[in-house]
Amino acid sequence: MNELQARDAIRALLQDYAEQRRRFDEISRAVRPWSDAEAARRMDVSQGKNYHRHLRIAKMSQTPFLGLVLDTYGQSLKVENYFSDGSVQARSWRHWQANRMDARQTGLHRAALQYGTAYASVLPSSSGGARIGVHSPRRLVARYGEDMAWPHSGDAVQTEFPIIAMVTDENGHLCLYDEEKVYFFGVENRPKDPSGWSQKYFLTPENLPFIEYREHGVNVTPIVRYQDRMMADGEETNGIIEHLLALSERIDRTNYEQGVAQYWAAFKQRYVTGWAPKSEYEAMRQAVSDTWTFANKDVKVGQFDETDLTQYIKARESSVRDFAAVAQVPAQSLGANAISNISADGLAALETSKDRKASEIQTSLGESHEQMLRLCAHIAGDEEEAADFASEVKWAETSARSFAQTVDGLGKIATMLGVPADELWSDIPGWTHERVKRARDAQASQGSGLFDAGSDKAALGGGEATG
Length: 467
Prior knowledge:
Structural class: alpha+beta
Pfam families: SPP1_portal
Radius of gyration: 31 Å
Strand order of the largest sheet: 5-6-7-8-9
InterPro entries: Portal_protein_SPP1_Gp6-like
Protein name: Phage portal protein
C-alpha cells in the first residue's frame, strides 16, 4: 500500500469510526457517573425556579446497575493458564506473562462486555518476543473481508484477521495497520466531537499529514477481535449493556420522580385562606403555635396530605426485578429484598443463569485469546505452537460453590472414578498452575508415599510410613 492508498484507507476508516463512536459513546455515558449536563439532559431538568435542587435530585437518581452488571460478569472472566495439545503449559504463555496480561485482561474483557467488541494488537518487540496492546472499540476500527469467493473474484479472504485497521491515540496520531506495515498520520485539527470526522474538512491531506511507515513483518494485519458472542454473519454483537439501557432509564426516572415527591410533598402541609400576617413576628408566632385562632369567621384552615411514596417504591422494585431477569444477574446482587433466609445451595442455584451466560462469553473470548497467543508464537518464530489449534486457555473457577463442597467432590472423583489425584489439583479453588507445579515437585522429591493415604506421619515428620 502506497501513501495515497493509505490516505484513502484512513479516510474510509475515519468515517466508520465517526459512526461507531455515536453508539459507543451513548453506552459509555450511561455507565459513567453523570455530570451536571448529563443529569439535566436525561431527567429533562431545565433552567427555572428550583433548578439547582432539581439538578441535585437528578444526579442522585442515577443507579449504577449497569456498572454492577459489568463488574459481575467481568469478575467471572479471568484467564489463568494456556495449555497446548498434550495438556502441558504452552510456551506462548510467556508472552502473556511478559505483557502483564494477568492484570490487563480486565480492561480487554470489560470493553468486549460493554460494547460487544474489543481488540488486541500484537507486534514484534525489540527483545524478540511479542508486544500486546489492548484497545477499546472507541479507539480502534477495523474492516474485515468476506469468507467466501464470488465468481471471477479470486480466492476467498480469510476473516480471522482484518484487512485493515486504524487506531487513534491521545497524542493526536492515527495508526493504520495492514498485512505488511504500520502507517503513521498526524492530525492538525481534531473535531470537538468524534462524529465530526465524517466532515470533509477534517479528511483533507493538509489536516492528515503522512509521517512515516514501518514494516512489521507479521504477514497478517496484527489485530485480534474479541466479541462477547460470535454471531452468525449479518447479526450484530451488541454487548451486555446496550439492551439494558431502557430498563436502567426506567429505574432512574422512577428514582427522580420519587426524589421530587419526597422533597416537596412527603409531609403534611397546612394552609390558611382569608388571612395574612401583619408582620414577620406574627407569622413566626402563628407557625410555632399548637393552636391557631382567628377573629375573622371567614378564615379557612386546611391541610394537604403527604404524597404516598409506596407506589414509587413498588414501581422501582418491579423494574429492578425486570432488570435482574434480563441481565441474568441474581436479584440479591441488585438489592432486591424478596429473598431472605436462603441456604448456600439455594444461593448457588440462583446464580445458575449467570454462570451459563458467563460460560457462553468465556467460549467466545477464549477463542480470541487462543488466536492472539498463536499470533504471538508466530511472531516469536515458534511455528509449532502457531499451528497448534488444539491449544486452549484455562479460566479461573468463580462459581458460587463452597470450598468444602468442591474439595469433597474432587475427592469422590478420585476415589470412586479412579482419576489420579494430582490431575485434579488444578481444579482446587485458588490453586494456580505454579501452585500445582510446586505440589508435584514436592511429591516427586519426597517419593511416591507423600500424598498417599497412611503417610500422614511421614509427611508430618513423625516417622516412616509403611507400605
